[in-house]
């Protein structure tokens, strides 16, 4: 009976057998070249005083609609693959147009794209050049009357002599009379209008032509019109507009008056104020600015200047609504976060929004009651690790905040990613009064610990600290807070407690650059500084601490317990995803550091919400790709492991496995199964031993200026390494700057070699004659010897006849070289 297929293997495709699309397949069209025969004249109407009446004759080859022959693949010489026609701008339908000598002034050589190859930028430029004059002519059509008749006939009513207006925002911009234009734009009051003067088009406006916008009644007539404002300013994507607005003064069925700001919102205009508004911005503009700021980090100042230039590029300061736009954008951001979080449907109102409720949460992290099976907490250890909550912590000192004395009101205090500032400051004033007293016991020097108590004058915040989900790099709700000094434990403790408050989890892993130091007194600080409602309700053994993979290398030995390469149940987690989050946020630091405290929090919250959302959009294909990669790699590595494992006795591998299981439960168990036991002597240890051996000889020596032999040899080895490095650099130096720097290094190295040779003459007198013979050969050559190619004549490189006299130096050099090689191997 055939065994049932593995369900995972059955569902996943085998990409190794995936069929590739064959190259150079399908049918091609062969384009015939231009011919001189059978040409006809065609006319392009050129702008002249408003009429494109003056003509210019050009020749166009009738054969550009060339006969197309279908040929076999092996017969194709010039052609375009049919599947590639489209966005790249290449295609037989436009070949040969305007490429005669009369059009371009000279014969334009054409390089057809090779079959099966996508067009490069160079190809696209070459294809465009023959059409450049025609494109420009079409653009000039828009500045003149185009195809309009000399009788100025209205395209709507047909009346002659009245069609002098056109709309720049309507398709084709047809000429029409004033009445037809106003009738067509009754619901389009923000379109740009131009009027023909007889020689050119000049700017006009619907307001000056008599258009009045009646608010209320969904654009219909109002039986009781109210206040009239004929200088109302509306900001739109096509610039600022002065609009004649009449508000509605009617009462609804409940006898209530519809406020002016409500009437503006109903038409899609966001008012700058609530009382007697005179300025508004369209929803389209605010949505575009919001998205542009999130994606492109464009500042509000630059966007406002752009609007002014669109309005009038010759007099850009006719309207200034920067302050109003700044206020409205802040409200728009806030309202969009409330809307997307569903707060508009809560009968309790916005004021009852819970902490972190506006944050976009990670759908792939464990959320009990949402994406975990019923009874997940009772899963056996072999399954329970799947529900581990991964967090990663880091700080960013570019997101500063200047102390400008701005008093601001928070619209969403602690409702998204930043913690509640008022509660945070109360906690800090109580527990952060003294400098951080914990010292660094790690072999590496951590700036986060060394600079924890540093404060930068003139700044309210020296940066921010943040907590993201460790597997998918989404910012955690209430996982961000300001840093007042350096990266103090007291700040990070609060963020961890805040983001985990009210969360149900069993297993937790926290990745942090300084986790090896931070974790030591974590639970002591928690019990001392936090109320029981904020303390973690879990056993310390259920929390694992890790150092990100890029940072673990600098921590030195005895850090296996913090390595994501060895911790069980972490998969391919690398813990560095938070760094990419900083690169997303840093471009707005120049703007946010000048803001008030509240608007800065709201702006950063908004950008983190955008970051989280874009991460979620990519999770689908990312997780599918990761799953397939993991499946293929586990098959590969399982096979490698099984082949390697059978080479060892079973009782030995069983003992190893038991020792690893014991070490995973208690990291104090010795030896560390993942730590290499150093069985070699390092270069520095050899130097120390040789120096100690030479100490007695130096004390008895009368030559106080003589360098110890071991120091002499070590310096020679350093010069040898510098020669290798300089030789490698000489092979890549091409520019004048690089060559100048290279020559400076050569001169410096040659000076060091010369000084070392003075001591070499004492220890190895015979080298003088060897060096002189090399100098005589160099004199016969035209160029001097390069520093990286100078023969140092170290003891091991001396001729055999001289070696007996320097056997002691050779033995010491051997010890130094062996230690040097061991050090190099240990760093691979």
Automatic annotation (TrEMBL):
It comes from the Eukaryota. Residues 1-121 are annotated as: Disordered. Residues 108-117 have a biased composition (Basic residues). Residues 1-16 have a biased composition (Basic and acidic residues). InterPro entries: CxC2_KDZ-assoc (IPR041457), KDZ (IPR040521). Residues 206-314 form the CxC2-like cysteine cluster KDZ transposase-associated domain. Pfam families: CxC2, KDZ. PANTHER family: CXC1-LIKE CYSTEINE CLUSTER ASSOCIATED WITH KDZ TRANSPOSASES DOMAIN-CONTAINING PROTEIN (PTHR33096:SF1), CXC2 DOMAIN-CONTAINING PROTEIN (PTHR33096). This is CxC2-like cysteine cluster KDZ transposase-associated domain-containing protein. It comes from Cerrena zonata. The lineage of its organism: Eukaryota, Fungi, Dikarya, Basidiomycota, Agaricomycotina.
